[in-house]
Design brief:
The chain is of the alpha/beta class. 50% of the residues lie in helices and 12% in strands.
């Protein structure tokens, strides 16, 4: 892509003055329109060192309402960031609906600077490209607008700019030894950048190459691209139908019901339960220490019927863990802040750092259950979610995490019995709500949705484990056994 760019393009001062005022006013109006439509926007600035990214970002934000944007300058990973999957730090910075996030360098650092410096292996680079594609597709599918800008200059121009900066004490700090090294080996870095641009020039998030040797020309081209993109998206929003397709459950039958094949008669005696519980807790305590030492993150996701026993299973699990090394994340309906982001945003924010355990009491799978059935998202959104959730879990596994998902299964009669017990017990009646009874009326709809979820999202790296839950003792032991087995298997893979 880059070898075809004409870097001799220029703009005179008079034309620049005329256009910058017009573009600034236009962008300001369009920013307000996009905010009214709740459109989140990401603007990515990448390019060669000395190309003027900082200057151009300042020119852009002068056209924007300062209450509506955030600017993120991306450098090497911090120690905290390095303890998470590489996209974690970018997921946590994705903008809420109606806001703009401007990135001075971005997730592309992984396949540009870090690649040039040899910080990533060949396999890691391949995975990074896959993860970037998934990341941008999920965001754009969810409504985020991504504008990617690459500022291009020649090796000669870069060298001259570095010399000018180094000649003054006030600006010399802006040029590092690494900058000079990349200029010395400009052709090598140019080749890496060119391959990156070609590989990531997606239809849903294309690259815009900016001829940046003339600063005025670069400014007007950048603002023109942004103004045009804002205007096009604003027009699309205006043309949308007022009534969107709701997310009602489709009536497609899943003939081979997974849940109907589960044997709910499995039981354990109280004595056997107590003995096995004690043994498993001892194992888990030791394994938790080994997890921390080996910096292995663990994600445990719990779903199931209301009154299915999630809380009891989680309690027995955490009884064996060091409280400094895990968090339990209860998931309820998203609040206003969470609702203004991509639906996976709130879960990425709670993913564990290396060596820690994150336990989710209800999860991202609400998208294909309650949100699907109650019409809280469109049909297109929940149908797309199966792939998005598989991709998120695969990214966690690629980072080295253990990911286990539990469906605690009980039958309808057992649920009715537990509901009644909760209602009659003053110490437990806070656990039962009118919503629980309403959901019970939709048992058949939920059962079909759960069957489809289990089939479409159980993978070898992040499997669903169906827990026979009519007997609480049996269910708790099965959960603990599965966790212990998975952690032991993961630790055994560590090379001595």
């Amino acid at each position: 892509m880059l070898e075809k760019i004409d870097l001799n393009k220029k703009m005179d001062k008079q034309e620049y003055k005329e256009q910058i005022n017009l573009l600034g006013a236009k962008i300001s109006v369009l920013q307000r329109e996009l905010k009214s439509y709740g459109v989140p926007v990401i603007v990515v600035f990448e390019g060669f060192g000395g190309a003027g990214k900082g200057t151009q970002i300042n020119r852009l934000i002068h056209t924007l309402d300062p209450r509506g944007y955030d600017v993120y300058s991306i450098d090497s990973e911090t120690k905290e960031e390095a303890l998470h999957p590489f996209l974690w730090r970018f997921w946590t910075k994705t903008p809420a609906n109606g806001r703009i996030a401007v990135f001075d360098r971005s997730w592309y650092r992984r396949v540009l600077v870090d690649r040039y410096e040899g910080k990533t292996s060949k396999n890691d680079i391949s995975l990074a490209f896959e993860d970037i594609s998934v990341f941008e597709k999920q965001l754009t599918d969810g409504g985020t607008m991504i504008i990617k800008l690459f500022l291009d200059i020649s090796a000669h121009e870069q060298k001259n700019r570095f010399k000018k900066l180094l000649s003054k004490k006030a600006t010399s700090w802006r040029v590092t030894d690494k900058d000079l090294d990349r200029n010395k080996h400009f052709e090598e870095y140019f080749d890496i950048a060119d391959k990156m641009l070609t590989k990531t020039d997606y239809e849903f998030a294309p690259w815009n190459i900016i001829e940046a040797e003339d600063e005025k020309y670069a400014t007007i081209k950048i603002l023109s691209i942004i103004a045009s993109a804002f205007e096009e998206r604003s027009n699309q929003e205006k043309l949308k139908k007022k009534a969107e397709v709701n997310g009602k459950f489709d009536k497609t039958d899943f003939n081979n019901s997974v849940l109907n094949r589960i044997d709910l008669s499995k039981k354990l005696s109280k004595e056997e339960y107590s003995e096995r519980l004690s043994e498993l807790k001892k194992k888990l305590r030791i394994l938790h220490s080994k997890l921390y030492a080996a910096r292995i993150p663990v994600v445990l996701a719990f779903e199931g019927w209301d009154a299915g026993g999630k809380g009891g299973a989680i309690k027995r699990l955490t009884d064996a863990l060091d409280p400094r090394g895990y968090t339990v994340n209860p998931t309820s309906s998203p609040n206003d802040i969470e609702r203004s982001h991509h639906y996976l945003w709130r879960f990425w924010n709670r993913m564990p750092k290396d060596g820690h355990i994150a336990i989710f009491d209800r999860t991202w799978y609400g998208r294909v259950m309650v949100e699907r059935i109650e019409g809280f998202c469109s049909t297109q959104e929940w149908q797309r979610a199966y792939k998005e959730m598989n991709q998120m879990e695969q990214q966690l596994v690629n980072h080295g995490a253990v990911v286990l998902k539990f469906w605690l299964h009980i039958d309808k009669d057992e649920q009715a019995k537990r509901f009644k017990d909760r209602q009659d017990n003053p110490e437990k009646n806070w656990k039962i709500t009118d919503e629980d009874w309403r959901n019970r009326d939709k048992w058949d709809l939920y059962e079909k949705a759960v069957d489809e979820m289990l089939v479409r999202t159980s993978t070898s790296d992040a499997p669903w484990i169906i827990v026979e839950g009519n007997d609480k003792y049996y269910a708790r032991i099965k959960v603990l056994e599965a966790v212990v087995e998975a952690i032991e298997k993961r630790i055994s893979l560590i090379k001595e």
